[in-house]
Amino acid sequence: MEPKAPNGTAAQAGRPRVVLGVSGGIAAYKACELLRRLTESGHDVRVVPTASALNFVGEATWSALSGHPVSAEVWESVHEVPHVRIGQAADLVVVAPATADTLARAAHGLADDLLTNTLLTARCPVVFAPAMHTEMWEHPATRENVATLRRRGAVVIEPAVGRLTGADTGKGRLPDPGEIFEVCRRVLARGAAAAERDLAGRHVVVSAGGTREPLDPVRFLGNRSSGKQGYALARTAVARGARVTLIAAHTHLPDPAGADVVPVGTAVQLREAVLKAAAGADAVVMAAAVADFRPGRYAEGKIKKKDGEEPAPVTLVRNPDVLAEISAERARPGQIVVGFAAETDDVLANGRAKLARKGCDLLVVNEVGEGRTFGSEENEAVILGADGTETPVPYGPKEALADTVWDLVARRLV
Predict the structure, then answer these.
(1) Can 117 be counted among the known catalytic residues?
(2) Which of 92, 247, 298, 346 is spaced 20 to 30 A from 190 at the CA atom?
């Protein structure tokens, strides 16, 4: 006879089992999109709402979308001991949205409903995606509860900045469900390694995208960087427990859930943002394609074509070398600095020379060109260490390269 899952349905071997906890906040309706992404990607999802969450999205909706019965009570189906079995059987528990009340009850070990009972019995990775008003998120009680949960190994995603309930705007918005899904996917992909939480309590800074140097009000000098590798680094760092500051230069990508995103335009702006963020960082990963040069003169009006005349030469001046600067002047003892080198020829030779010249701890060297690396979902590289090590990363998803970078960073952190 086929074994039964805790909810009474046939257990489906090979499908990751996810518990989606839903707290009673207005953002509860967004959890429907997260549920859809989880189920459509092959996960077996059991929804466990709080009683107040059912005021926003009803039981019938959760049952229809998940294919499982839904309850918020510990006294239903008592013979199956759901308050114990659901958490025990899960491969991942994600609470989205997680209100200030849910975070407080989880931090203090309360067990007055099915969700908090599930959290107490879970021995798998747990992800919280908070959503609340800014004042509630910034309150010392909430901050202490978040710190407690993180110290115990939970992933507590930083909320997004944006429109809240009513006319309020600030930090406390539920991150995009698609980005929460990416965090869950990364935590599940790491499996047992996710429990190690090797970046928990660490602050990391990642730069991504490509800077643009204005020539006139409508033209600029730029590059082909899409920012995808830097965003993969940010997502994987969040999934490994880090607090992430992402310095983003001209990308069209959604903000990674849990990262504090600082938008910049030029190399000078990127330098200012990186130096500010790096002051309290354990590691800085410079994945952005920073322009080496900028026009020496900015034209206030659009540069016009003139019949019979050649355009005036564009004089270039050097931009600051941000990687060399932060490598030479570490903001704190033990800070790890990682650079990226995009090369078109003599890749390793140029990479070794750049590693020595920049003074960083690790340098990710990859070959670029038309149709290679820039804008792609895949990458391959060799990571050179200042200690003489070489770590090849075969062609594959950019997240795989990102995880290898963080593996090497984590080993060097003290």
Answers:
(1) no
(2) 247
